[in-house]
């Protein structure tokens, strides 16, 4: 059996754009436990108060499957094991599983620790021997093992033997610099297994500096590794760690290893998004298995084939990992895309002529710079407008945006006014914002919420601007993509295109609001 050791809460937080509070780490640990990982490395209790706080808080959490692990280093040469602050902090954290790392590369021993090679072996063995008396399980991270092996094979192997003599139950081979390619890694693992015996439990910990961390980890399992360490979404220092979100489904679906309960695998996509949400990172739409684009189809030939059998262009069923199939629409689209999307929105296109008209309008708009791949709400509105199933929720009368700057040391003052009509009633509102789009958005909502109070639950979640024809300077065409969300967690994208960035933003804002109202009413046809 292969066991999953998650180090998101420790190694993952070493990424330069990640910072987690102790309570954040507890929430993540709960979620990892529910998913079914075997070990959760909570942090280094001897390094900072935040990690020690986590260990105190997690004691009160009833975990169902995962074991919390404390991390630390071998003792300093001048300290006896029972007097070393780092080893004592691990014990005081209250865990029953500990992982400590030591130096396997003779270069590091001499130039980082500044001790002799025999002294390093002694430090490894007696540090583990001391912890062995206090822990139910004990692991050893052989830091820089592969680099150390390449430089001094015999010494790198000697450090593993010292760790085993000290009582480590699993020896984790670490590619700390991430520079070892998979074929090198597996050849070294084979030597280790031959030298230490097939019964010795080995783990793998790979960094992604060569973009091969997942591949290396998977091949390591094929070569006898029984513990795989990594992080959710590959978070970690420099280029990140081995991505468990890719490793787990590859091991379980494609390689036949039972690493998490099968019924939990469909929770993979939501776990991936949850971690990014807590870490305040935007989720990568291109991430394998769980990204929004992982099972997205754009080309008309692809879509036609997927309609007949998804296996034509999908390596697994997206539902297996909690994802979903998406059909995109663009200038590469054929009628198959339009038909598929219409079915997705419960729209009956009726005739081939209507489908052809939608396709014609779609290609015409994209020629002008519109893009509907990230703006599916705008596409649905386009379909409804073409088929006569669209009714605007207000009549537009006008808007004005003013930007005034009075002092060089203060930001400009931005004000927007909006005039609309709903049911014969004219509403004229104004609002101040942090910029022209923010002010316009606030003024529009102020006008509409009087008539449609449910719009108070809609928030602008993301705003992207792209210049489409930069060769034209300030008169270039601008495309604005807006993502909106409601209090139920639903998200939808809309698009606007114009030479005027305010006008492009207005188009996307209007689509986002009208889409929410349309979805509230349902997908039935409401002809003009």
Gross geometry: elongated
Q: How many helix segments?
A: 17
> How many strands?
16
The level 1 CATH classification of the largest domain is Alpha Beta
Kindly report the spatial arrangement of strands forming the biggest sheet: 1-2-3-4-5-6-7-8
Report the uncertain regions.
Answer: none
Through-space gap between termini:
62 Å
Question: In percent terms, what proportion of residues is strand?
Answer: 15-25%
- Helix/strand structural class: alpha/beta
The named CATH superfamily of the largest domain: Aldolase class I
The protein's oligomeric status is single chain
Helix content: 25-40%
Report the biggest beta sheet as strand number plus sense, adding barrel if it closes: 8 strands, parallel, barrel
Number of domains: 3
Quote the average pLDDT. 91
**Any idea of the CATH topology of the largest domain?**
TIM Barrel
CATH architecture of the largest domain: Alpha-Beta Barrel
Give the C-alpha Rg: 29 Å
């Amino acid at each position: 059996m292969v066991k999953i050791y998650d180090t998101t809460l420790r190694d993952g937080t070493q990424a330069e754009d990640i910072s987690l509070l102790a309570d954040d780490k507890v929430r993540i640990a709960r979620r990892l436990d529910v998913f079914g990982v075997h070990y959760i490395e909570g942090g280094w209790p001897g390094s900072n108060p935040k990690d020690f706080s986590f260990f105190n808080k997690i004691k009160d959490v009833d975990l169902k499957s995962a074991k919390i692990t404390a991390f630390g280093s071998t003792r300093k040469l001048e300290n006896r094991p029972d007097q070393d602050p780092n080893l004592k902090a691990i014990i005081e954290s209250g865990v029953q599983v500990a992982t400590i790392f030591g130096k396997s590369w003779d270069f590091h021993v001499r130039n980082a620790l500044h001790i002799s090679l025999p002294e390093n072996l002694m430090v490894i063995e007696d540090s583990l021997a001391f912890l062995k008396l206090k822990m139910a399980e004990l692991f050893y991270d052989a830091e820089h093992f592969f680099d150390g092996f390449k430089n001094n094979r015999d010494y790198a192997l000697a450090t593993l033997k010292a760790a085993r003599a000290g009582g480590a139950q699993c020896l984790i081979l670490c590619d700390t610099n991430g520079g070892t390619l998979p074929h090198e890694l597996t050849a070294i693992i084979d030597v280790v297994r031959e030298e230490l015996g097939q019964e010795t439990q080995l783990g793998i910990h790979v960094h992604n500096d060569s973009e091969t961390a997942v591949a290396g980890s998977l091949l390591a399992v094929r070569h006898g590794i029984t513990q795989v360490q990594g992080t959710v979404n590959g978070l970690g220092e420099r280029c990140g760690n081995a991505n468990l979100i890719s490793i787990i489904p590859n091991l379980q679906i494609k390689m036949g290893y039972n690493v998490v309960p099968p019924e939990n695998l469909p929770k993979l996509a939501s776990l991936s998004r949850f971690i990014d949400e807590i870490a305040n990172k935007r989720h990568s739409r291109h991430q394998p298995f769980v990204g929004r684009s992982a099972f997205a189809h754009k080309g008309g030939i692809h879509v036609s084939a997927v309609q007949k059998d998804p296996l034509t262009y999908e390596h697994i069923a997206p539902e297996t990992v909690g994802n979903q199939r998406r059909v995109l629409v663009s200038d590469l689209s054929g009628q198959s895309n339009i038909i598929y999307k219409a079915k997705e929105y419960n729209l009956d296109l009726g005739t081939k002529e209507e489908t052809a008209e939608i396709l014609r309008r779609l290609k015409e708009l994209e020629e002008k710079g519109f893009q509907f791949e990230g703006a599916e709400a705008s596409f649905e509105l386009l379909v409804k407008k073409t088929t006569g199933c669209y009714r605007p929720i207000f009549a537009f009368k006008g808007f004005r945006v003013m930007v005034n700057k009075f002092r060089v040391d203060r930001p400009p003052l931005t004000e927007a006014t909006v005039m609309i009509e709903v049911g014969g009633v004219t509403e004229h509102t104004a609002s101040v914002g942090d910029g022209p789009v923010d002010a316009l958005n606030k003024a529009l909502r102020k006008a509409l919420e009087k008539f449609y109070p449910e719009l108070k639950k809609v928030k602008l979640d993301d705003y992207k601007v792209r210049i489409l024809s930069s060769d034209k300077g300030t008169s270039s065409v601008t495309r604005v993509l807006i993502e909106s969300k409601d209090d139920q967690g639903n998200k939808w994208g809309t698009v606007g295109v114009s030479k005027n960035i305010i006008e492009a933003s207005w188009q996307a804002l209007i689509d986002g609001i009208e889409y929410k109202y349309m979805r509230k009413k349902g997908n039935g046809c409401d002809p003009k």
